[in-house]
C-alpha cells in the first residue's frame, strides 16, 4: 500500500476548526513535524481540508536497500 509523508508547514493558530482538527487527526503536533500515513480516502480528505497548512510527499513502494 502506498504511503504519504505529511509535514505541517504553518501554524494552526487562527485557521478554521475543521482544518485544525484534520491536522491533529493526521497526528501532526507542531510546525515541521512529519508523519507517514497510509494513502487512503480518509487521510486524503484530511489533507484536502488543510492543504494550506500541510505539504505532502508520496513515498515510493519497495524501500531502498542499504
Automatic annotation (TrEMBL):
Gene Ontology BP term (one): translation
Quaternary structure (record): Part of the 50S ribosomal subunit.
Keyword Mitochondrion: no
CDD domains: Ribosomal_L30 (cd01658)
Molecular functions (GO terms): structural constituent of ribosome
InterPro entries: Ribo_uL30_ferredoxin-like_sf, Ribosomal_uL30_bac-type, Ribosomal_uL30_ferredoxin-like
UniProt lineage: Bacteria, Bacillati, Actinomycetota, Actinomycetes, Nakamurellales
Keyword Ribosomal protein: yes
Segments forming domain Large ribosomal subunit protein uL30-like ferredoxin-like fold: 4-54
The protein's name in its UniProt record: Large ribosomal subunit protein uL30
GO cellular component, one term: large ribosomal subunit
Signal peptide: none
UniProt keyword terms in alphabetical order: Ribonucleoprotein, Ribosomal protein
Gene (UniProt): rpmD
HAMAP family: Ribosomal_uL30_B
Family: Belongs to the universal ribosomal protein uL30 family.
